[in-house]
Please model this.
Amino acid sequence: MIGKLIGALVGREIDRRDGEGGVKGAVLGAVAVGALRRLGPLGLVLGGGYLAKKAYDRRRDGRTRPAV
Model:
């Protein structure tokens, strides 16, 4: 269950970076789930770390940008 959630969030982050939208993020998220499952607990830690880093960077960038 947690692996599927992390895979979906990884897919969303990949799709956000691309900016085009569509099926690409969903497909890459599904592939990420398979990769995370094969790695076991280490995969969950790596996927969760990736998402935490992205959230931290987004929050930090939001604080440093001047209001327009």
Notes: The radius of gyration is 14 Å. Residues 12 and 34 are 16 Å apart (CA to CA). The chain has three helices and no strands. Residues 2-62 form one domain.
